[in-house]
């Protein structure tokens, strides 16, 4: 079912739009260029300079498509396979957590039909790859919390580092998870020395692998961060959001005013930076973004809360309309958006309701595993939200976790209905 839906969706979109470019985003070329550079010269670069905004994992996924001359077909096919593998991982995680095959199947079925996972499997975003690698991390860490095996914590550490190489949003997860592991080890009391040692190994491997890319950036460009996209976001998303709120203008207009996506506009406002190095420009953007946050903490918190709510409730309808090339200004778009958004929103509420029931069902065999899932989900939503924008896309990696909880909730409801129908059995 997962495979059929993920294959049918892009075919349906293509039959309507007649254009493979609809599967591209504004960011797609920023992944394709360094992938081509890797093929041609073995260097991770774009426009003749070392690439420090994008990390290498997702561009590598484009290499087979570039070499075979079919970027869209090959990459989307790979993403469909990854998304189907994610469905299997949801099943494996659920069986691990609940020790029940039936709950695992329900969790997998919910994720197989989850709209965002279907839609993003055919878009040239990093979402599908990120969700798959994140689930590998969650599987091995949940397994470790059950068995205390050193091999599982090592695999979890490597997978977590890999998620950062797909999307830098994971950068702060290693210290957060390590802290949680230390607390868990202290609460266990028995074998806490061994568990603390394991937590230390986890941090050293996961953070050590991430720091390797920072070393590369430092050596090649002088930039000491992991990804300069964080500096871009601080300036053009967080900073723009704060300034738009203060100036009473639209967020997108403030971004344009600051030169987002238009280097000439940006340099016309900062002519002295035309001769600056990449490192110096990004450090300036970082400082300016932080300055705006420090000077306007209430606006920052308000925007963060609004973005979090948007991320949790948005259905992805706007992206879907873009895929079928419905004009932004068309009156038809507003009607279609309402018609499509209502059933998707009802379905989303159904997932959230089932997840809440699952959390409080009492079927969790290990409270640490539940807290792990909640912590990772909350981290992903909050980090994306304080990053300056609320968007259904940022909920995508959270939905597998929601499906694990929702599958448990659905199983609980089914057991209750069965008991009501046959109270003597």
Describe it.
By secondary structure, the chain is an all-alpha fold. It has one domain. It has 19 helices and two strands. The chain has a two-stranded antiparallel ribbon with strand order 1-2. Strand 1 and strand 2 form a beta hairpin. The longest helix has 30 residues, at 192-221. The radius of gyration is 23 Å and the shape is globular. The model has no long low-confidence stretch (mean pLDDT 93).
Task: Give a nutshell description of this structure.
The chain has 425 residues and is mostly helical. Helices cover 75% and strands 1% of the residues.
Spans where pLDDT lies below 50 across 5 or more residues: none
Rg calculated over all Cα atoms: 23 Å
Residue share in β-strands: under 5%
Average pLDDT taken over every residue: 93
- What is the string of SSEs from the N terminus onward? HHEEHHHHHHHHHHHHHHHHH
Would you report the number of β strands?
A: 2
Strand order of the largest sheet: 1-2
Which structural category do the helix and sheet elements fall into? mainly alpha
Major sheet description: 2 strands, antiparallel
What's the number of domains? 1
Q: Could you give the distance between the termini? A: 33 Å
User: Given the C-alpha coordinates, what overall shape results?
Assistant: globular
What fraction, in percent, of the residue positions are helical?
over 70%
- Count of alpha and pi helical runs: 19
């Amino acid at each position: 079912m997962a495979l059929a839906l993920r294959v049918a969706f892009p075919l349906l979109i293509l039959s309507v739009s007649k254009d493979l470019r609809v599967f591209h985003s504004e960011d797609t070329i920023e992944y394709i260029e360094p992938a081509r550079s890797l093929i041609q010269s073995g260097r991770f670069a774009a426009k003749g300079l070392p690439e420090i905004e994008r990390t290498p994992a997702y561009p590598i996924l484009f290499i087979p498509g570039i070499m075979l001359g079919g970027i869209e077909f090959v990459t989307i096919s790979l993403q469909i396979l990854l998304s189907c593998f994610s469905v299997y991982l949801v099943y494996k995680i659920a069986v691990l957590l609940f020790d029940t095959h039936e709950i695992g199947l329900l969790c997998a079925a919910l994720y197989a039909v989850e709209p965002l996972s279907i839609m993003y499997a055919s878009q040239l975003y990093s979402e599908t790859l990120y969700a798959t690698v994140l689930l590998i991390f969650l599987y091995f860490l949940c397994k470790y919390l059950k068995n205390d095996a050193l091999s599982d914590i090592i695999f979890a550490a490597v997978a977590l580092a890999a998620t950062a190489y797909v999307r830098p949003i994971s950068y702060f997860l290693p210290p957060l998870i390590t802290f949680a592991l230390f607390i868990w080890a202290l609460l266990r009391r028995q074998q806490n020395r061994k568990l603390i040692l394991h937590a230390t190994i986890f941090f050293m491997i996961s953070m050590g692998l991430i720091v390797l890319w920072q070393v590369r950036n430092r050596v090649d460009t002088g930039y000491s961060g992991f990804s300069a996209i964080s500096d871009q976001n601080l300036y053009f998303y967080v900073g723009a959001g704060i300034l738009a709120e203060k100036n009473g203008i639209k967020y997108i207009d403030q971004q344009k005013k600051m030169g987002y996506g238009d280097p000439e506009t940006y340099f016309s406002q900062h002519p002295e930076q035309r001769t600056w190095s990449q490192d110096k420009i990004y450090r300036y953007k970082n400082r300016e973004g932080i300055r705006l946050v420090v000077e306007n903490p209430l606006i920052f918190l308000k925007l963060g809360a609004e973005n979090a709510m948007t991320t949790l409730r948005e259905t992805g309808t706007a992206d879907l309309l873009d895929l079928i090339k419905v004009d932004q200004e068309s009156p038809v778009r507003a009607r279609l958006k309402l018609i499509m958004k209502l059933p998707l929103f009802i379905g989303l509420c159904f997932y959230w309701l089932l997840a809440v029931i699952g959390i409080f069902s009492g079927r969790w065999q290990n409270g640490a595993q539940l807290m792990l899932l909640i912590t990772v989900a909350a981290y992903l939503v909050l980090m994306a939200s304080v990053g300056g924008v609320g968007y259904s896309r940022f909920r995508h990696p959270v939905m597998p976790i929601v499906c694990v909880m929702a599958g448990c909730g659905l199983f609980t409801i089914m057991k209750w209905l069965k008991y009501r129908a046959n109270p003597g059995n």
